[in-house]
Amino acid sequence: MPTLWSQTLIPTLRQDPADAEVPSHRLMLRAGLIRQLGSGLYTYLPLGWRALHKTIEIVRDEMNAAGAAEVLMPALEPIELFADTKRDVEYGENLFRVTDRHGRHAALAPTHEEIITELMAAYVESYRQLPLNLYQIQTKYRDEFRPRFGVLRSREFIMKDAYSFDLTVEGLDTSYRAMYDAYCRIFDRCGLTYEIVEAESGPIGGSASHEFMVLCDTGEDTILKSDKGNYAANIDKCAIGERDLDPDFSGEPTGDLREVSTPDCTTITDLCKQWPKFAGGKLKPQNVLKTLIYRFEGDLTAKEQKEVKELETHGYEDEGFYFYWMVVVRGDHEINEGAVKAEVESVHGRRMGFTPKSMGLHLMDESEAKEAGFEVGFVGPHAHHSLPTKTRARTLILVDREAMQPGFWVAGANKPDHHVMHFNWQRECDLRWLAGDAASDHVTHVADIRKATDGDPSPIGDGGVLREHRGIEVGHVFKLGTKYSDAMGFTVLDEDQKRRSVIMGCYGIGLGRIVAAAIETGHDAHGIIWPASIAPYSVHMVPIKYEGELCKTCLSLAEQLEAAGMDVLIDDRPERPGVKFNDADLIGCPIRLTIGEKGLAQNSVEFKRRADGKAKAELVKLDQVVQRCREALDI
Predict the structure, then answer these.
(1) Which residues of 370-386 are buried (b: 16+ CB within 10 A; e: fewer)?
(2) 93 and 181 part of one domain
(3) Which of 292, 372, 521, 579 is least enclosed, having the fewest CB within 10 Å?
(4) Residues 415 and 282 in one domain
C-alpha cells in the first residue's frame, strides 16, 4: 500500500534551524527525518527511519552473504568485564556509567568486544568450531563532551558491529578480507563515493585497521591522499615520506635566554597574537616549541617483575611502572599520538630488554601534571632540570625532528604566565650525546612524531605529495589479534590439543552516519537528493488536487509501481502546488510524479528526477510510467 502524507508524520520546516552546523543536520531537521530530544539525542521520524531501515537491510544482506551470523547483545555491560582489558580507563569520561538499585556498576556499551569475547569463551572450546563471525545491529552510547553535527556525533547511535574469530593469522587475513570486500559492496549499494584509508585503531586496539571515508568539505575527519592516487590515510595514521632532515643542534644561539611575561597566553594562538606587546616584533607558530606532558604506565607480570629486578633498572620496581614524557613539536604542528606511543614503547622495550604486555600512554590533565611538577601551558623542554627529584628521575623527553633545528625559538619558561625567547637546544638542554649513537638510556630522544600536513612527501617514495581532504567515517575494520582473548582468557584446543588464544577481528559501521553522509554529498539549495537505494520512498506523487479522477489515477499508478518493487508516497494534503513542490524537493525522493488535469487530458503525468535539478519535467504516458520509473531507478 502507498503511504498517504496525511497518515504519517512529516513535519517539514521552512527555515534552517539555528543550531544546525552542517548540511546533513540542517536538512534532516528541515525535512522531518529527525527531531532533537536533548544534547546528542535524536528521535528518528518516519522518513528518517525508513532511510535508516533501508540502510540496515543492505548491511544485513551483505553481512549474511559474507557468512556472518546475527546476534543481539545487551547494551548494558557489567563493569567487571573491563577488569582485564582496562578499556573503562581508556574510554575515560566517554563511557556512560550507571549503578543499579543493588549498587552494581555497569556501563552503556560503546562497543561490544568484551561482551562478545565472554560469549564466545562460554561456548567455543575447539579449533573445529572456528572460524566464526558474529554481528549485531545495536544501539551504542558514548558520553560525548560536545555532541555536534546531528547524528554524525551523537551520544546514542545505531551501529553494526561484527567480530571474527580464527585460530591463525592467515585465517584472520581471510576473515578481514571478507569483511573489507563486504564493506565495499555495502557502500556501493548505498550510493556512496568513498575512500579507503589506513587508520589508527584508537581505544579499540589492534594491529591494523582501515577506515571507509566519504569525502566532503564538512567532514569531521582529516585524511591525506597522495596526488599520485596510490596512498591515503587518516591524519592520525598518515606516514610522511623521507626528508633530508636530521636533528641539528649546531646552530649558534640567536641571543641570550630571556624571560618574557606573557599573561593569559596558554595557547600558541594567543601567544603569537599578543607577542608584539610583550617583546616587540612578530612571532609565528613555527618558531614556538609546543610541549605536552604524557604519562606512560603499565603493569608487570610476575615473570616481567623478575626480569626487571635482574636488570636493576630504575623506575620499573614493584608490580608496575610509570614514566613522564615531555613531547615537543613545533607550534604549527600537531602531535601524532600513535607515533609517540610507538616510539615510547620502543624506548622502554630497549631499556628493559623486553616489551611489557600491558602498557598505556595518556595526555595528562592540568591537575595531574601540576601535581607531578609541570606547569601546564608554560612548559619548556628545559623544565627537566628544575623538576622535583622524584619526577625528574622518571621523566624523558621526545622531540620531533623539525623542532630540533637551529633558529629562533620561543618556549615555555616553566612558570605561570611566562615564556622564554632565544631558546637553544644545545645550551639549554646539553644535547652533546647526539653527536654519537643514541642509546636507550638517554633522557632525550628524537623521532618523527608530528602529524602529516598538506604538502608533505608521500611515504610511497614516488615523488607524490600529500594533499589534505575532509571526510566522514562510515565504516572501520580492525585486526584485533589476541588483545581481548589474552586479556579475558579466551583459548581453544588446537589440533595438538594445546591451548591457544583465539585471534579476533572487529568490523564496525555507523548506520546513521551512512544516512548523514549520503545527504552531505547529495543535496542542493532546495533539499536532499537521495541515492535511490536508501531514499525513504522511491516515488513521490504530487497530485494537484487529491480528488476525483486525480485520486483514482494516483492510487492506480501507486499499485502498479509497488507491484514492480517501488515504494510510493502520495501527497494528499489540501495544500497549494507550490508548497507541495517545495516539500518534494526538500525531502528529496528520487522521482516526482505530478498528476494534474492538463496531463491527464493527454493521458500523461509529469515525470521528474530529483537529481535533474531545474531541468523541465517530461510528460510520460500512463502506460509507460512504471517502465520509465524502473529505468530511472535502475531496477
Answers:
(1) eebbbbbbbbbbbbbee
(2) yes
(3) 579
(4) yes
Distances (CA, A) of 335 to 204, 267, 332, 363, 400: 20, 15, 10, 11, 9
For 424-442, the pLDDT digits (tens) are: 988 888 654 443 344 456 7
- Centroid of chain to Cα 491: 31
C-alpha cell at 510: 555507523
> Residue 616 has what DSSP assignment?
P
CA pair distance 556, 174, nearest whole angstrom: 50
CA dist 504 and 169 (Å) reads 9
% of the chain surpassing 90 pLDDT: 73
**Residues contacting residue 390 through CB under 8 Å, at least 6 positions apart:** none
- CATH number of the domain that residue 351 is part of: 3.90.960.10
**Looking at 419, 447, 475, which one is the last position of a domain?**
447
59 near 185, Cβ under 8 Å? no
In this structure, the answer to whether residues 514 and 543 fall within a common structural domain is no
Task: Pick the closest to residue 488 from 72, 106, 122 (CA basis).
Answer: 122
Shared domain check, 550 and 489: no
**Is residue 12, in this structure, part of any structural domain at all?**
no
H/E segment holding residue 62: helix 46-65
The 3-state DSSP class for residue 346 equals: helix
CATH code: domain of residue 479: 3.30.930.10
C-alpha cell at 541: 506523487
Instruction: Classify residue 362 by burial, with Cβ atoms within 10 Å: 0-12, 13-18, 19+.
Output: middle
Residue of higher predicted confidence among 434 and 468:
468
Question: What pTM did the predictor assign?
Answer: 0.86
Q: Are strands 69-70 and 132-141 parallel, antiparallel or unpaired?
A: parallel
Same-domain pairing of 475 and 576? no
The whole domain housing 575 covers: 537-633
Confidence tier at 590 by pLDDT (50, 70, 90): very high
Q: Rounded CA gap, 594 and 550, in Å?
A: 10
In this structure, the answer to whether residues 202 and 111 fall within a common structural domain is yes
Tell me if 230 is assigned to some domain.
yes
> Do 570 and 624 sit in the same domain of this protein?
yes
Residue 6 in any domain: the answer is no
How many Å apart are CA 122 and CA 28, to the nearest integer?
43
Q: What is the CATH number of the domain that holds 586?
A: 3.40.50.800
Q: In 399-461, which ranges are continuous DSSP H helix?
A: 425-429
Residue 475 is placed in which grid cell?
Answer: 565504516
* Count of domains observed in the chain: 3
Nearest-angstrom CA–CA distance, 205 and 277: 47
Q: Angle 511-520/23-30 helices, nearest 10 degrees?
A: 100
For the segment 389-428, what is each residue's pLDDT rounded down to a tens digit? Answer: 888 888 999 999 999 888 999 999 999 999 999 999 888 8
Q: What is the DSSP letter of 264?
A: T
Crossing angle of helices 337-352 and 302-311, in 10° steps, is 70
Which of 447, 475, 501 finishes a domain?
Answer: 447
pLDDT: which is higher, 475 or 362: 475
DSSP secondary structure string for all residues of 93-120? GGSEEEE-TTS-EEEE-S--HHHHHHHH
Query: Smallest Cα–Cα separation from 208: which of 536, 507, 609, 509?
Result: 507
User: For 458, which DSSP code?
Assistant: P
Residue 16 lies in a domain: no
Nearest C-alpha neighbor of 165 from the set 491, 498, 476, 475: 491
Q: Which three cell numbers stand for residue 380?
A: 619548556
